[in-house]
Amino acid sequence: MRELDRWFTDKRGIPVRVIRWEPESNRVIYLRTGYEHGECFTPLDQFQRYFREIEAPDER
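Above: the chain's sequence. Below: its structure in token form.
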């Protein structure tokens, strides 16, 4: 498992913060702002297809 702190947008342009990559299960774990149910995950191949890296948004 690799801990990360990188920002991406999903296919709808919504920013997400990637917190972990799990090579053993080949999935990316991320957080959505305002999503109350905790962590989300996507298989790496789908993540590479549908997400684009961005600069971290300003913390306000």
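The radius of gyration is 11 Å.
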